[in-house]
Write a structure and sequence with these properties.
The chain has 72 residues and is mainly alpha-helical. It has helices at residues 13-22, 28-39, 42-52, 56-71. It has four helices and no strands. The longest helix is centred in the last third of the chain and has 16 residues, at 56-71.
């Protein structure tokens, strides 16, 4: 089982680069907000957990928080 602090989970630069290149500049503040939306309940959490399994949304939110803390 991977942990949110694992190297694989912390490989978020590609994701943020994709968002910045194709949608909007993805700052750490925006990334943290996405993590909160993912794990905050409702459709985001339901859909992410349906795709990745129960607890995936919280796992991703935790990984994002660790990534942003380490990037500061």
């Amino acid at each position: 089982i991977e942990l949110p602090a694992s190297d694989d989970a912390q490989n978020l630069e590609e994701d943020t680069g994709y968002i910045t290149q194709n949608l909007y500049t993805c700052t750490n503040k925006i990334l943290r907000g996405l993590g909160k939306m993912y794990s905050g309940g409702g459709d985001f959490t339901t859909n992410i957990d349906a795709y990745g399994g129960e607890g995936t949304a919280i796992f991703v939110a935790d990984a994002i928080e660790i990534y942003c803390d380490n990037a500061e």
